[in-house]
Amino acid sequence: MSNSDHTQGSLQLTDLSKYFGEFCAVNKVSLEIQKGEFLTLLGPSGSGKTTLLMMIAGFVDITSGDIALDGTTIVDIPAEKRNFGMVFQGYALFPHMTVRDNIGYALSVRKRPAKEITERVDEMLELVQLQDFANRKPNQLSGGQQQRVALARALCFAPPVLLLDEPLGALDKKLRVEVQQQLKDIHKHVGTTFIYVTHDQEEALSMSDRIVIMRDGAIEQVGSPYDLYEHPATEFSASFLGKSNFLRRPDGLYALRPEKIDIRAAGNGGEPARLTGAIKSITYFGSMQRIIVSIPDGDELEVDIDSWRNQDPLHEGQQVDMLWQDIAAVKLAEG
Amino acid sequence: MNAIRKKINPGWILVAPFLLLVVALYLGPIMNILWLSVTDPEPGLSNYQKLYQSDTMARIIWTTFRICVVTTIFSVFLGYWIAYAMVHCHQQQKNYMLAFLLVSFWISILVRTFSWLMLLGRKGLVNDALGGIGVISEPIAFMRNELGVLIGMVHYMVPYAVLPLLVNMQSLDMRVMNASRNLGATGTQTFWRVYLPLTTPGLVSSTLLVFILSLGFYVTPAVLGGGKVLMIAEYISVQLLVTLKWGTAAMLAALMLLGVLAMLYIMSQFMKLSTVFGGSSS
C-alpha cells in the first residue's frame, strides 16, 4: 500500500517557544525528527508535550522559533493546510457520521472522486480491521474500535506526519498493550513519521524509536529507549522513565536501577557487600518481588529480584548484603 | 390486600398529591375545553364546521400560521447567530451578553411592545429622524400592520431561541471541530458538515419553542397590529369576552393544542425528541 510517498516527513524544530501570558509552556525546544521515525514526547502533565504537539499541528500559535517540514518553514501555514494527520485525545470522531464517512472525510473535503474515496476507505478499513463496521456510528463502537477509526481517519489522506495525542489514554490496560502492538505494526506498514504524546513510560519504552523526555516545557533528554533507560542523564530522567535509587557519593549523584542490585543474606562471605541494611518490606508481584531495604544512613533502597531466585526466602527484618557491578551505577548531571 | 401493596411502588405515595394536583388543575381544564368545543352552544361538531364555513376563521388561522412561521425563521436565525457569538467569544463578553439576554426576560412584554410603538410609530423616533434629515417625505408604516407584529414578535422571541442553542453549542466537543480542520476542511466546510449537523437538536428545540410560543401571542399583535392583524389568541379572547361564544373559543383552543401535538409528532419521526429536550441521545 502506498500510504506515504516517503519523500516527505522530516521535521525540524528550532528554538520553539510558547508563552501564555507570563507562563512559559514550551521553552526553546530544538529537535530533529527523522522521516519515518516513531518519536515519543514523554512527560508528566504540564510538561508542555501536548502544547508542543498542538504547535506542530497548527492549533496553537508559536511565540518564537521555527517549525520546518523537510527544511521548509510551515509556521505560517494554517492547520487545515498542513496536511498532518492527527489522532486526538478522546478521538474526536464525528458522532453524526458513519465509520466510512469519518474515515473518508479528509478526501471528501478535498473533493476527490467518489470512487477513489470508496477504494481508499476500503483500504483503510482493512488496515485497521474494521471492514464489518463501516456503516456503524461511533457510539456503536467499543473504545478500541473508535481508536482504530480515529487512526484510519488520520491516515486516510496519506499525511507525511501523524500526530498522536495520548491515543490510548481512554483504554483499559489489557487492551492498551494489544493496541500498542497494532500501532507499531501500522507504523511499520505505512512508513509515516509518528509523533506520539504520552505520560505512560511503558508505552514510550515499548513503541518508540526515540523518546523525548520533557519537563517544565523544555527537553530534559532525548535518546533511544535503551539509551534513556540505561544511561539517564539527570535525576528527573532516571525517576520518570522506570524506577531508580539515588546514591550520593563524594564525587556526585548516581542512579541505580532496582533490578541491577543483587541481594543476599548478610555474612555469607564471597564478594564484599557494597551496602548492608535491614529488609523493611517485601512485596510480591508474581514474576518479581520488590524489596525495600533500610540502609544505615536512614535512606531506603529499592531492590527488584526475580521471584524464582528467592528460593531461600528472605524475610522482613533480616540483615542483607547488597552488591552491584560498577557499570550499574550511572553518574548523573546535577542541575 | 398484601398482594396489592406489594405491586404498588411506595414511591407513588410521595408523588400522588402532586399527580392529583396536576390532574385537577391542568388536565381537568383542558378536558373541559375539549368538552366545551363539542357541547356549546349545542352538542355536536357545529363549532368545527365553522372552520370551513367561515372565511374569517380561515383567514385568521392562515394569518396566525404565516406570522408564526416567519417569526420562527427570523428568531431562530438571529438566535443561532447570537448563541454562536456567545459560545465563541471571551468569557467576559459572554457574561455581558448573557446579562443582556436575561434582562430582556425580566421586562414585561407590554413595556417592550409599547417601546416599539414609540420607536417605530408614525410620529416615532425613527420616522421623525428620517423625516428630519430628509430621507423620507412620508412616514414609513412600520406599525399597525403585519410588519409591526413581526418586528415585535421576533424581538420578543430571540432570547427564547438563543437558550436551547446556547446549551447545545456549549456541550459540543471543540476537538471535533479541530479534527475537521486538521483533516483539511475549510471553516465553511467544517460549519456545514460538522457544526450545523451537531447543532441540529438545538435548532429543532429552538424552532419548536419559538413556534409554539408564537401561536399563543396576544399582546403584541393586538398593540402593534393596531386591530388590523387578527391572530387566533386575540380572536379567542374576543369570542370569550365580547361575543360570548365559548364554544368557538374552545374549538380554536383545541385546534391549537392539536396543532402543537401534530408538530411534536412530525418532529419525533425525524429525531429522538429526548435529545431535543435535553435528554441523552444514547
Which features does this protein show?
heterodimer, A: 335 residues, alpha+beta, Rossmann fold, OB fold (Dihydrolipoamide Acetyltransferase, E2P), 2 domains, 8 helices, 18 strands, 25% helix, 32% strand, B: 282 residues, mainly alpha, MetI-like fold, 15 helices
Structure in words:
The complex is a heterodimer of chains A (335) and B (282). Chain A has 335 residues and is an alpha+beta fold. Chain A folds into two domains: 11-235, P-loop containing nucleotide triphosphate hydrolases (Rossmann fold, 3-Layer(aba) Sandwich); 260-331, OB fold (Dihydrolipoamide Acetyltransferase, E2P), CATH 2.40.50.100. Chain A has helices at 49-57, 99-109, 114-127, 143-155, 173-190, 201-207, 225-230, 235-240; strands spanning 11-20, 23-33, 38-42, 64-69, 72-73, 85-87, 161-165, 193-198, 210-215, 218-223, 245-249, 252-256, 262-265, 275-284, 288-294, 300-306, 319-323, 329-331. In chain A, β1 and β2 (23-33) form a beta hairpin. Chain A is elongated. The mean pLDDT of chain A is 90. Chain B contains 15 helices and no strands. Chain B has helices at 2-7, 11-39, 46-53, 55-88, 91-106, 109-120, 125-132, 146-170, 174-182, 187-198, 200-215, 219-224, 232-241, 246-270, 273-276. Chain B is globular. Chain A binds chain B through residues 57, 59, 78-81, 83-86, 88-90, 92-96, 105-106, 109-110, 139, 153-154, 157, and chain B through 173, 175-176, 178-186, 189, 193-194, 197-198, 281-282.
